[in-house]
Write a structure and sequence with these properties.
The protein is of the alpha/beta class. Helices cover 43% and strands 15% of the residues. It is built from 9 helices and 10 strands. An 8-stranded parallel barrel has the order 1-2-3-4-5-6-7-10, surrounded by 5 helices. It has a two-stranded antiparallel ribbon with strand order 8-9. Helix 4 crosses helix 5. The mean pLDDT is 96.
């Protein structure tokens, strides 16, 4: 079962491994730089080699990154778009240096343009980044969104259109449970979860699914509210997490729930108990 958390690199990349060891996890997500600044981080050859060695040393099966929150490749603003393109390409290069499998990207917001124009902007930006990093095997995963405002990715059709336009095996998706529920996909019960996965398969393709973000939801169904809650403490309950672990054990799943009071350990314990019960139910 590939299960982990978003680990902090505050103080150095090595701290992600110390956190993973303490929690006993075999997969994690990190920011490779300050996620709220445009300034890029340079990685030395020594730093990259050490990180890749630690992936093996600490038994990390899959590790990946989340891109900067500032990136908006859907934007029609030329300055933001150019910065976003450079930042995304730099992220992919850092992932390659660190031995990370992929990076998760919020598709973006069209704001002063239209949904169609935003989708085209995203696809064109991805094509440009893939071309500039053509020697890399790092994938870019589009994360489904809660559908708030002018954000793109709240519907599976948005993701499918982008992926079709780009036409590259290096583009996939990361499924966020809170976002899916907030955008209107009712995954609370087994039947609803299966219906949602069937839609995902038909519209996007399950073969494009490479990661999960595990978050319960503070908001109601279709509320468009992107507020994460601890596992089993929100509007989703436990059932969707049990189903995901039953059907997708080999796809990495990371928590993005609040970290106060060492809650990662509590949430992992809940999930591991669900995983055990799902195995026993087969």
């Amino acid at each position: 079962m590939l299960l982990g958390v978003h680990c902090s690199i505050a103080g150095g990349y090595e701290n992600a491994f110390l956190e993973s060891k303490r929690l006993g996890i075999n997969t994690f997500q990190i920011f490779t730089k300050n996620q709220r600044q445009w300034r890029e981080r340079e990685i030395s050859e020594t730093e990259g080699n050490l990180f890749r060695e630690n992936l093996i040393k600490f038994g990390i099966v899959t590790a990946f990154s989340h891109t900067s929150y500032l990136i908006n490749v859907a934007s029609s603003n030329e300055i933001i778009r150019e910065r976003s393109l450079f930042s995304l390409a730099s992220e992919v290069k850092r992932c390659q240096q660190l031995g990370l499998a992929f990076t998760v990207l919020h598709p973006g917001s069209f704001k002063n343009s239209t949904l169609k124009e935003g989708i085209i902007n995203i696809a064109d930006a991805l094509i440009a980044v893939l071309e500039s990093t053509e020697q890399s095997n790092v994938k870019i995963l589009l994360e489904n969104t809660a559908g708030q405002g002018s954000s793109i990715g709240g519907r599976f059709e948005h993701l499918a259109e982008i992926i079709k336009h780009v036409g590259s095996p290096r583009i996939g998706i990361c499924f966020d449970t809170c976002h899916a529920f907030a955008s209107g996909y009712d995954i609370r019960k087994k039947e609803g979860f299966e219906i949602t996965m069937d839609k995902l398969d038909k519209i996007v393709g399950i073969n494009k699914l490479f990661a999960f973000h595990f978050n319960d939801s503070k908001g109601e169904l279709a509320s468009k509210l992107d507020r994460h809650e601890h596992i089993g403490k929100g509007k989703l309950g436990l059932e969707p997490f049990k189903e995901i672990m039953k059907w997708f054990p080999d796809i990495p799943k990371v928590l993005e729930t609040p970290k106060e009071n060492d809650m990662d350990k509590v949430n992992l314990r809940v999930l591991n108990e669900l995983a055990l019960s799902s195995i026993n139910s087969f």
